[in-house]
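User: quick one
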Amino acid sequence: MADPEGKTISAALARLGFDTVEKVRTGKVFTVDFSSEDESAARELIERVSGDILSNPIIEIFDFEIEEI
Amino acid sequence: MVVGVVVFPGSNCDRDSLWAVESALGERARFIWHRDTDLVGIDMVILPGGFSYGDYLRTGAFARFSPIMKSVREFAEGGGLVIGICNGFQVLLESGMLPGAMIANKGLRFICKDVYIRVERGGTAFSAGMSNGDVLRMPVAHFEGNYFADEETLEEIESNGRVLFRYCDESGVVSKDINPNGSSHNIAGLVNERGNVLGMMPHPERCSESILGSTDGLGIFASIRDRINMMERIGV
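Assistant: Done. Structure below.
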């Protein structure tokens, strides 16, 4: 699907001499701090938050990493 | 007819919508705060333009969780007429009440200008006084107006005649060159399967009086009024 911002960045990089850059896709990164009983509960929560609110499945895909702090 | 204009934090075409209904059309309208849930006595709902929740995350992403949206969904499921204009259209998309999504305009610029749109289907609840091929001039003002849906969805929308308005030139010719924002199939407005929910990026409320330079938008509100009056007459 179209990513006008990625396309613009890609064209700019080419103009700046980064001629090996073939494609740029833009996205968003969220850092979410929360408390959780265990890792599976944490995965479940973050999957719901990512899938239901932070991303729109029509135009976006999501992935996540969990880190204990 | 009583029109309910939903006010989200960040709506900014709510007063224009109310004005268009009351002053230009001569019907009654009232604001409905997004935390309210009561649509009793409302004949039609407008989700106005603006920047609900500051457009944070994605346009319309948080407005869809406002309490009023559950009522708006039920209202639509009961056959009530709903029109989402600009940010209202984006809210309808995020709510899943219309298919597809909005992404940034192809030129990555906020577009604020008059455009021409072609009526693809006259005679609907929203286009009663219009004929197929009529050309309307209306303002647009958006950054995320680039309508996207996958091929399968587009095919379904097209084959069921759900595209109501398409970006075109002054004489009604639809082409890629005239497409202001990159929308799939030049789609400027579409309806749900049942035909009672319309989402459109152009602003009919901003062109409903001659003093504003055009009255092309008034036809949409007049169409809705006529449909509601007819339904009342036949006791629906």
